[in-house]
Every structure is written in structure tokens, then in C-alpha cells.
Automatic annotation (TrEMBL):
UniProt main location, coarse: membrane
UniProt keyword list: Cell inner membrane, Cell membrane, Cell shape, Membrane, Transmembrane, Transmembrane helix
One BP annotation, GO: regulation of cell shape
Annotated transmembrane regions: 54-73, 94-111, 131-151
Record-linked NCBIfam families: shape_MreD
Lineage top rank: taxon: Bacteria
Name of this chain's protein: Rod shape-determining protein MreD
Record family assignment: Belongs to the MreD family.
Entry GO terms, CC: plasma membrane
Location in the cell: Cell inner membrane; Cell membrane
Pfam families reported in the protein's UniProt record: MreD
Function: Involved in formation of the rod shape of the cell. May also contribute to regulation of formation of penicillin-binding proteins.
Native species: Stenotrophomonas humi
Membrane-topology descriptor: Multi-pass membrane protein
Length: 161
């Protein structure tokens, strides 16, 4: 059994934890800057294991998130599929960027996600999100480095010394 096979639990555990992090109640003041944990975790797995995590996986996880979070059915599925598609398209280049440049790219993708979210809310005649929600991609960009390091260490079984 290969070392990567022995760590097969990391993918479902990280997705489950990301879903739970999205359900954790936050104070009203912090709610707008809640990072999109599911998108960050999905981005890691699309970049590192594209043979296991692709558009179908992103769609299914997005539908599950829609049901769990009680939003518009298909909203998060669409947002995650768009993100996964862009990541798959540019994976070969993005994978070899330094993590600081990857964080900038992830920030751009999270900003794009907010644009898609705003468009969906506009088309569904839902109330528009306040301007403070546009700060969340910056927090997600800042969290990319520690999240990437943690998931990579768990995936590969590295131990801190």
C-alpha cells in the first residue's frame, strides 16, 4: 500500500470539516468576512489530485452545501464547478507558482466567486449582499498558505520536527 493510499481519509475529512466550518455560527460583525472554506479546500484538491477531484465532485459537494446551508439550490454547486473548471484549465501553470503567487490566484478566484454569487442573487431577485462581503476573498487569500501547508502535510504524511 502506497503512502498516498494510506492517507485516503484526508480528502473526505477535509471536505467534511470545510462544510462544518461553513455552518459554525459567527457574530453578526464577522459574518461578512467568513472565508469560503469549501472553495479553499476544493481548490487544494483540484490542484493536487485532479484525478480524484474534478467537476463532478465539485458539483456534488456544492449541492450538498446548498442543502446544508439552506441557500438557493444549485448556487454553490455552480460556483464550485466554475472554480474547479478554471483551476483545472490552469492547473499545470498554477501548480508550479510559489505559494505567494498561488494565494494571489486563489484570491482572484474567490473574487470571481463573489461576482458569480452576486449575479445569482440578482437573477433570483434575492437581496444583494452588503459591500462588507467583498472582504472575504482577501481573508481566503491570506488563509491559502497555512491551509495549503496543512493539507499537503496531512496528504503526504509529513511530520513537523
Amino acid at each position: 500500500m502506497s503512502r498516498l493510499r494510506a492517507k485516503a481519509w484526508v480528502l473526505p475529512a477535509s471536505v467534511a470539516l470545510a462544510l462544518l466550518m461553513g455552518l459554525v455560527p459567527l457574530p453578526e460583525l464577522l459574518q461578512p468576512v467568513r472565508p469560503y472554506w469549501l472553495a479553499l479546500v476544493l481548490a487544494f484538491w483540484v490542484i493536487e489530485t485532479p484525478d480524484q477531484v474534478g467537476l463532478g465532485f465539485a458539483f456534488c459537494i456544492g449541492l450538498l452545501a446548498d442543502v446544508m446551508f439552506g441557500g438557493i439550490l444549485g448556487e454553490q454547486a455552480l460556483r464550485l464547478v466554475v472554480m474547479a473548471f478554471i483551476l483545472q484549465r490552469f492547473r499545470a501553470r498554477l501548480r508550479f507558482f510559489p505559494l505567494s503567487q498561488q494565494a494571489l490566484a486563489i484570491g482572484g478566484l474567490l473574487f470571481n466567486d463573489r461576482v458569480i454569487d452576486a449575479a445569482i442573487h440578482l437573477m433570483a431577485d434575492e437581496p444583494a449582499l452588503p459591500w462588507s462581503y467583498w472582504w472575504a476573498p482577501l481573508l481566503g487569500m491570506a488563509l491559502w498558505l497555512p491551509l495549503y501547508a496543512l493539507l499537503d502535510a496531512l496528504r503526504l504524511g509529513k511530520r513537523g520536527r
